[in-house]
Amino acid sequence: MKELKRGREPSQNGKDFYETFARLGRERRRQIALRILRDQKMLADLYDHFLIQRSLAEPGECIVWEHSQG
User: Fold this and answer.
1) What is the pLDDT of residue 25?
2) What is the Cα–Cα distance from 65 to 56, expressed in whole angstroms?
3) Tens digit of each residue's pLDDT (9 = 90 or more) over 4-58
4) pLDDT reported for residue 39
5) Contact 63/51 with Cβ under 8 angstroms?
6) What Å distances lie between residue 3 and 8, 9, 14, 48, CA to CA?
7) Short-list 32, 36, 7, CA closest to 22
8) Is the pLDDT score of 68 beyond 70?
9) Which of 14, 24, 67, 70 could make a disulfide contact with 28, Cβ separation 3.0–4.6 Å?
10) Cβ partners under 8 Å of residue 17, min gap 6
Protein backbone atom coordinates (compact mmCIF):
# COMPACT_ATOMS: atom_id res chain seq x y z
CA MET A 1 0.00 0.00 0.00
CA LYS A 2 1.27 3.49 -0.86
CA GLU A 3 2.35 5.67 2.03
CA LEU A 4 0.75 9.09 2.32
CA LYS A 5 2.93 12.19 2.22
CA ARG A 6 3.51 13.90 5.58
CA GLY A 7 1.52 11.16 7.34
CA ARG A 8 -1.82 12.81 6.60
CA GLU A 9 -5.03 10.96 5.99
CA PRO A 10 -6.63 11.51 2.58
CA SER A 11 -9.27 14.22 2.60
CA GLN A 12 -12.85 13.12 2.24
CA ASN A 13 -14.23 14.30 -1.10
CA GLY A 14 -11.69 17.13 -1.26
CA LYS A 15 -13.02 18.80 1.88
CA ASP A 16 -9.53 19.76 3.11
CA PHE A 17 -8.63 21.23 -0.27
CA TYR A 18 -11.86 23.18 -0.57
CA GLU A 19 -11.65 24.60 2.95
CA THR A 20 -8.05 25.71 2.33
CA PHE A 21 -9.00 27.22 -1.04
CA ALA A 22 -11.98 29.05 0.50
CA ARG A 23 -9.74 30.65 3.15
CA LEU A 24 -7.55 32.27 0.48
CA GLY A 25 -8.11 35.85 -0.50
CA ARG A 26 -10.26 36.63 -3.51
CA GLU A 27 -7.33 37.50 -5.80
CA ARG A 28 -5.39 34.33 -4.91
CA ARG A 29 -8.48 32.16 -5.56
CA ARG A 30 -8.87 33.88 -8.94
CA GLN A 31 -5.21 33.24 -9.81
CA ILE A 32 -5.51 29.56 -8.91
CA ALA A 33 -8.77 29.15 -10.85
CA LEU A 34 -7.21 30.75 -13.94
CA ARG A 35 -4.18 28.48 -13.63
CA ILE A 36 -6.46 25.43 -13.48
CA LEU A 37 -8.40 26.61 -16.54
CA ARG A 38 -5.17 27.06 -18.52
CA ASP A 39 -4.08 23.48 -17.76
CA GLN A 40 -5.40 21.41 -20.66
CA LYS A 41 -5.50 18.14 -18.68
CA MET A 42 -7.42 19.78 -15.82
CA LEU A 43 -9.75 21.48 -18.29
CA ALA A 44 -10.44 18.15 -20.00
CA ASP A 45 -11.35 16.67 -16.61
CA LEU A 46 -13.77 19.53 -15.99
CA TYR A 47 -15.42 18.98 -19.39
CA ASP A 48 -15.75 15.27 -18.60
CA HIS A 49 -17.31 16.06 -15.23
CA PHE A 50 -19.89 18.42 -16.77
CA LEU A 51 -20.75 15.94 -19.52
CA ILE A 52 -21.23 13.14 -17.00
CA GLN A 53 -23.43 15.33 -14.78
CA ARG A 54 -25.52 16.39 -17.77
CA SER A 55 -25.88 12.82 -19.02
CA LEU A 56 -27.08 11.73 -15.57
CA ALA A 57 -29.64 14.54 -15.57
CA GLU A 58 -30.83 13.68 -19.09
CA PRO A 59 -30.81 9.86 -19.35
CA GLY A 60 -31.20 8.47 -22.84
CA GLU A 61 -30.14 11.72 -24.52
CA CYS A 62 -27.05 12.10 -26.71
CA ILE A 63 -24.88 14.61 -24.86
CA VAL A 64 -22.23 16.50 -26.81
CA TRP A 65 -19.93 19.22 -25.51
CA GLU A 66 -20.86 22.38 -27.40
CA HIS A 67 -17.91 24.76 -27.48
CA SER A 68 -18.74 28.26 -28.61
CA GLN A 69 -16.07 30.56 -29.96
CA GLY A 70 -16.27 33.92 -28.30
Assistant:
1) 96
2) 14
3) 455 555 556 678 888 999 999 999 999 999 998 899 998 888 888 888 888 888 8
4) 92
5) yes
6) 9, 10, 18, 29
7) 32
8) no
9) 24
10) 11
